[in-house]
Specification:
Length: about 500
């Protein structure tokens, strides 16, 4: 079974409506499939097209994004979701890594020559018109009919999607995900939350694994859905009221933003029953405030990574006796979890690195060896499994910051700061943030005594996304170090939290 097979099979039977904001365009699944068919035909006419080739999707969360995803699958290509808000340098890097034969964007989107100097483009306009450029001549393509599901019975172990994640190396890594992994992820969520006449609020970006999986979950369960291109608390609240949305997935920071929105009491949120929270840690007091403010029936807690095709654990905040408890969910049946302390397996309640194996896992990274079916994936996260079988994530080993669910590479931020020419040495860390989970902070040894925080942030503009520019910067004469000479990041974090008072902190 493959992801496009599932979607195609329900396309001709679903009567649920979907809405794409901000233009409030309404459509049904059958209409969505028709648009996907037009995209598939355009892809097949691109120069260099061959089954299994990569097609880059440079689109916001929208009807067009889903049509592009399905169209690539129906053309037997492998879609790769790009961050449409990324800087040109990052987009260019991703396209080069993919060796993509084409890029799909919205009609009128400006792409600089440095991003895609030679690549063919397919521009979508109004969800119904496809404008390939260039479009060569050739034999006509047979009419597309999603009811003919036999053509989608592809090998489930083949690549279905490429997503880019910020790793500790500082460059985005292309993660190759299989049809089998997508199907397993959707099946695990379906069994865990048991959808019942839902209207999903889809605000997670579609270049993020949770955005893709949640979208497929809504389609495969014949649910209604509202597509939001970006997060804004008032827009989400208005959408819940207008479309009677019932469920949404996202990082805790998103729901904290909703629960603290001015004038919240004005909105009738009685339809909004359940949320799934994942992507970054959250304290019990915050979860209880979200539950109270939004009047929720259930909060599900989950853990997942791009490499695990999204969530591999799921469980409610409240146990069967009603008591709330913070955790990261219970592993789904199709995933194996091991907690390792070096080469030794940890017992129940013992901390170690979380490792995973199963159908959900990636097939590999772009340009790197395959990830074998029976290979374990080391997550880079410290955690444990308690006596009740619940997963807990306690710390991180790898050098990334998770800000509002976004992975930010420490190495990338440090590189940009050093390239300003006014920084001799720097250590970037994540510091706790009540609203965002973590924020980006830096301890800096400057080569210029006149350099201040505002000027250093200005020098980063255009080289880092705004969300990745350090919000707290402490200037120091030296950085704390371990006996090996390496910078002691935990001590740097403590120093920054001391508000840059210059106190000596032991590693």
């Amino acid at each position: 079974m493959s992801a496009p097979t599932i979607v195609a099979q329900i396309a001709v039977t679903s009567s649920k409506r979907l809405w794409s904001l901000p233009n409030e365009e309404a459509f049904c699944t059958a209409e969505l499939m028709s648009g996907a068919g037009a995209v598939a035909q355009a892809i097949r006419q691109l120069p260099g097209f061959r089954p299994g080739c990569h097609i880059a999707l440079n689109l916001p969360t929208s009807r067009e994004w889903i049509e592009a995803l399905l169209g690539a699958w129906f053309a037997q290509a492998v879609p790769a979701a790009l961050n449409p808000y990324a800087l040109p340098e990052e987009l260019s890097f991703c396209i080069d890594e993919l060796q993509a034969v084409g890029i799909i964007d919205l009609h009128g989107t400006e792409i600089s020559a440095e991003v895609a100097p030679q690549i063919a483009r397919i521009s979508l306009c109004g969800s119904r018109s496809v404008h390939p450029s260039p479009l060569p001549g050739g034999a006509p393509i047979p009419p597309f009919d999603p009811r003919d599901c036999e053509q989608f019975h592809v090998d489930a172990t083949l690549d279905a999607l490429v997503l880019f994640t910020s790793g500790s190396s500082g460059r985005p890594k292309g993660v190759r995900l299989s049809h089998r992994g997508l199907v397993a992820s959707v099946a695990g969520l379906t069994a865990g939350i048991e959808p019942r006449d839902e209207v999903f609020l889809l605000q997670a970006p579609m270049h993020h694994v949770f955005g893709v999986v949640t979208c497929l979950l809504a389609l495969s369960t014949q649910s209604g859905a509202v597509l939001l291109p970006a997060f804004a608390a008032t827009t989400m609240l208005e959408a819940i009221v207008r479309y009677r949305a019932t469920i949404s997935f996202g990082p805790p920071e998103l729901f904290l933003g909703l629960s603290s929105c001015p004038g919240l009491a004005r909105y009738d949120l009685r339809s909004f029953r359940r949320i799934l929270v994942g992507g970054s840690p959250c304290r019990l007091a915050q979860l209880l405030e979200i539950e109270r403010a939004l009047g929720l029936e259930t909060i599900f807690l989950s853990f997942g990574m791009t490499e695990t095709t999204g969530g591999i654990s799921l469980a409610p905040l409240r146990a069967s006796d009603g008591r709330p408890r913070v955790h990261a969910g219970r592993p789904v049946p199709t995933i194996e979890v091991a907690v390792r302390c070096g080469d030794v397996l940890a017992g129940p309640g013992e901390e170690g690195e979380l490792c995973f194996r199963g159908a959900h896992l990636l097939t590999g990274y772009l340009g790197q060896p395959e990830h074998g079916e029976n290979d374990w994936l080391a997550s880079g996260d410290l955690g444990l499994v308690d006596a009740d079988g619940l997963l807990h994530v306690t710390d991180r080993i790898k050098d990334i910051i998770i800000k509002a669910g976004e992975n930010i590479s420490i190495a990338e931020v440090e590189r940009v700061l050093l390239e300003t020419g006014r920084v001799r040495e720097v250590c970037v860390v994540g510091v706790p943030d009540e609203r965002l989970g973590e924020n980006v902070a830096a301890a800096v040894i400057s080569t210029d005594s006149a350099l201040n925080k505002r000027e250093l942030q200005r020098l980063c503009q255009g080289k880092l996304l705004k969300s990745r520019i350090p919000q707290k910067i402490v200037f120091v004469d030296e950085l704390p170090r371990l006996p090996t000479g390496k910078v002691a990041r935990r001590a740097v974090r403590a120093l920054i939290l001391e508000d840059g008072k210059g106190k000596s902190v032991s590693p």
